């Protein structure tokens, strides 16, 4: 599933970028993420993380890397291993006193096991709704 979400945040673009580009902030605003550990790099291209999530089928771990990075403008996170492969590309754009955050991504139910695996297409649709809620929480944290 491919998706595109955007929202305006009443915070400086630099602050929004720094927060989103640090994957370790995700447990604060992304409901399925329980813990994130940086396992390589110091931020920027090539930085790697272990991400621990709660999925409908139970706990999961993904290895994630920053695969594109332009300071203050763009950061892309790509899962290298783990269930529900994903790529999240965040774009940060100043916009009339606010900041426009754009999320372009892909996610798949591949890797889910057991009965929940049969719900793959439904899980993907529910993901988009959940991601809107997560971005709403992010907005509240930053404003």
Q: What structural category arises from helix and sheet content? A: alpha+beta
Tell me, rounded to a whole number, the average pLDDT.
Answer: 87
Low-confidence stretches: none
How many whole angstroms does the radius of gyration measure? Answer: 15 Å
Strand content: over 45%
Which percent bin holds the helix content?
Answer: 25-40%
Shape: globular
The CATH class: Alpha Beta
If classified by CATH, what would the architecture be?
A: 2-Layer Sandwich
Give the strand order of the largest sheet, numbering strands 1, 2, ... along the chain: 1-7-6-5-4-3-2
Main sheet? 7 strands, antiparallel
Q: Cα distance, first to last residue?
A: 30 Å
Elements, N to C (H/E)? EHHEEEEEEH
CATH topology: Alpha-D-Glucose-1,6-Bisphosphate, Chain A, domain 4
Number of E strands: 7
Number of domains: 1
Features of the shown structure:
single chain; 143 residues; alpha+beta; Alpha-D-Glucose-1,6-Bisphosphate, Chain A, domain 4; 3 helices; globular
3D architecture notes:
The longest helix has 23 residues, at 120-142. This protein has one domain: Alpha-D-Glucose-1,6-Bisphosphate, Chain A, domain 4, CATH 3.30.530. The chain is globular, with a radius of gyration of 15 Å. With 143 residues, the chain is of the alpha+beta class. The protein has a seven-stranded antiparallel β-sheet with strand order 1-7-6-5-4-3-2. Helix content is 25%, strand content 45%. It is built from three helices and seven strands; from the N terminus they run E-H-H-E-E-E-E-E-E-H.
């Amino acid at each position: 599933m491919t998706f595109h979400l955007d929202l305006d945040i009443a915070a400086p673009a630099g602050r929004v970028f720094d927060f989103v580009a640090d994957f370790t902030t995700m447990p604060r605003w992304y409901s399925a993420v329980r813990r994130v550990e940086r396992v390589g790099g110091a931020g920027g291209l090539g930085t790697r993380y272990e991400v621990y999530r709660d999925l409908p089928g139970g706990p999961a771990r993904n290895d994630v890397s920053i695969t594109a990075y332009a300071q203050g403008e763009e950061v892309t996170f790509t899962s290298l291993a783990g269930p529900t492969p994903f790529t999240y590309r965040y774009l940060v754009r100043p916009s009339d006193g606010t900041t426009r955050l754009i999320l372009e991504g892909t996610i798949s139910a591949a890797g889910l096991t057991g009965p929940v695996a049969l719900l793959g297409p439904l899980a993907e649709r529910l993901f988009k709704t959940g991601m809107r809620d997560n971005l709403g929480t992010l907005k509240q944290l930053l404003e």
